[in-house]
Each structure stands twice: as structure tokens, then as C-alpha cells.
Predict the 3D structure of the following.
Amino acid sequence: MLTEIESIALILSLKVALVASISILPVGIALAWLLAKKDFYGKSLLDGLIHLPLVLPPVVIGYVLLIVFGKQGAVGQWLNTYLGIDFSFSWKGAALASAVVALPLMVRSIRLSILSVDSKLEQAAMTLGANPITVFRRITLPLIMPGVISGLVLAFARSLGEFGATITFVSNIPGETQTIPLAMFSFLETPGAEFQAMRLCIIAIIIALLSLFFSEWLSRRSQQKLGLIK
């Protein structure tokens, strides 16, 4: 049986990962489509900014989030004053940090799927009178669904394992921001708590594997419906 601290960390991790991955899905699809389909001034800069979290130290990401979305930050202060949203030292901030570091993986996965779609199918639909929104909804989106699912699961798994940006931005508060990686960190700093850390490590591995298996199953189902595989 898990202890109360372990159970809370597990539930909070799943909550943060789900909120982070689902909230960035529309943004991820839009950015992936923009980068794959459009040529515009500053495209390379936008591409670099999107993928910047992949190469920046997580602590740097957390510090930037603290400056921008903290209680004294320009955006954070406005959100807190006018909308009552406070990211500082809360699970919402942990979800925000996870979303930022997971977004590049989602965009990359979906963008590759969009690039693999035969543009002749889209052109044929537009020739028959379909508007761009209908083409995307009826042609492009079903074809890229395996990539969308893959990107969503990658984002979920990355969010589940986020540590550096989270602890820098929202600290390590049990019951509020202490996800599985942060709880493991606390256990490793506590003499005699190595067993609890190992238990959370195993749980994290199991959740990640189940997520990948589920992603593969959904992807195959999607391809079967499209007739791409038997």
C-alpha cells in the first residue's frame, strides 16, 4: 500500500500531466499546421522559440516562468488581479511548467504527421468546393490522428517526469505541487526513505509504459479505421 504522501503525489502527477497535455493540444495542432503548411517571415524564429525548451536547462525555464507568471510578474500580476488566477506555488503552476516543456514534443510529432499527408487529397477537396476548415476537419485531421495521439502521449509522459522547471517555479510543496519526481527527490534526501523513492520510481515507469501501449493501440485503431492497415 502507498503512504498518504505517495498517493497524493501520484494523483497530483496524473492531474498535472493530464491538464498540461490536454491544454496544449489545440495550440500544438495549430502551431504544427502553421509550421508545416505556411511560409512566412520569422518562421525559423518561431520554430526555434517553440523548440527552445528542449535545449534550455529546466531551471532556466522555471525561472523565466517565475519572472513572467509569478505574483510580481507582469502577466502573473494581471492574471491574479483581474481573473483571480494564481500560478505561483500551486498545481496550476506545475501544469503550466509541464505544458511549456512538453509543447515542443507535441508540435514535432504532429508536424511530421502533417508533412506526410498527401497534399493532392487536400487540393482535390478544395477543388470540389470545400473550405480550408472543412478540408482540415474532414481530410487532414483524420489522417494525422496517429501523430496527434503520439504527440499527446509524449506530452503526457514528459509532463509526468518534469522536475527542474516545476521545483524552480512552484517549489516542492506536499499536497500542492509535489509530483512524483519531487516526492522522490524529498525521499532521497530523507535518510531511510530509499524504499519509498524506489516504489514511486517503479510506479512512474509503469504509468509511462501503459501510456505508450495505450498510444500504440489508439494509433493502430485510427489507422485501421482509415484503411491504412488491416
User: Anything to note?
Assistant: The mean pLDDT is 90. Residues 2-224 form a domain with the MetI-like fold fold (CATH 1.10.3720.10). The two ends are 42 Å apart (CA to CA).
